[in-house]
Amino acid sequence: MSRGEGNARRSTVTLHMVSSLDGFIARKDNSVSWLEAEGSVYEAGVSISEEEAASFVKTIDCYVLGSRTYEHALELGWPYGDTSAVVLTSRKLPPARKSVEFYSGDLHTLVSEKLAPRYPNIWLVGGAMLSQRFLELGLVDEICLNIAPVLLGDGLRLFGGSLTEKRWDLKNVVAYKNGYVELSYTASTV
Ligand SMILES: NC(=O)c1ccc[n+]([C@@H]2O[C@H](COP(=O)([O-])OP(=O)(O)OC[C@H]3O[C@@H](n4cnc5c(N)ncnc54)[C@H](OP(=O)(O)O)[C@@H]3O)[C@@H](O)[C@H]2O)c1
Q: For ligand 1, what atom is nearest to the CA of residue 106?
């Protein structure tokens, strides 16, 4: 049974991450300034306007993130606007924004009881630890992976732990003018 079939209302959990060519999502010191670095232009690539990006972001109903990603996002400048965000933590963290709520505990319960009835389009935006837990529990329906044109050599691994082998179906590939490549997959039913 796919994750959504047991839900009162069908929802999709998409894991979205940006990785270096060698599979890191942050440098060893946690910095992600490499995401902003400009390289040469890939002429055959596409670019999206701010309006297109904004209308795409509007389709996302809720973000889910681990506490370390939350703390880092607050430091760098909150990128999730006023869209609902659920932060996983066992600590008592100050709610920095009205749109943020905290959750601690079982992730199946989080998705099936708290998120799915309210949000059709759920985006899990990291970090590595939380993404790994979601994947291990079979709670991810789609993966949207952006590959940045950089080798970092070291850092926080995108998929660091020992995940069980599982096939994913390629749904779409987009190459951007800035050299990023976006790979979209859906969980294989085969
Ligand atoms: N390149 C990218 O696309 C990208 C995306 C996201 C993040 N990042 C980077 O990744 C780094 C953070 O990733 P990370 O792997 O270190 O940490 P993380 O996954 O963001 O957060 C891990 C934390 O989540 C909490 N948690 C996880 N499962 C929980 C559960 N079931 N109940 C309660 N709390 C739970 C725990 O918080 P407590 O310890 O508070 O209990 C745990 O320490 C940052 O440097 C960030 O900038 C990069």
A: 31
Q: What is the pTM of this model?
A: 0.94
What DSSP string describes the chain? --GGGGSSS--EEEEEEEE-TTSEEE-TTS--GGGT------TTSB---HHHHHHHHTT--EEEEEHHHHHHHHHH---STTSEEEEE-SS-----STTEEEE-S-HHHIIIIIITTT-SEEEE---HHHHHHHHHTT--SEEEEEEPS---SSSEETT-S-PPP--EEEEEEEEBTTS-EEEEEEE---
- CA of 104 from ligand 1 middle (Å) equals 13
Q: Per-residue pLDDT tens for 37-73?
A: 888 999 999 999 999 999 999 999 999 999 999 999 9
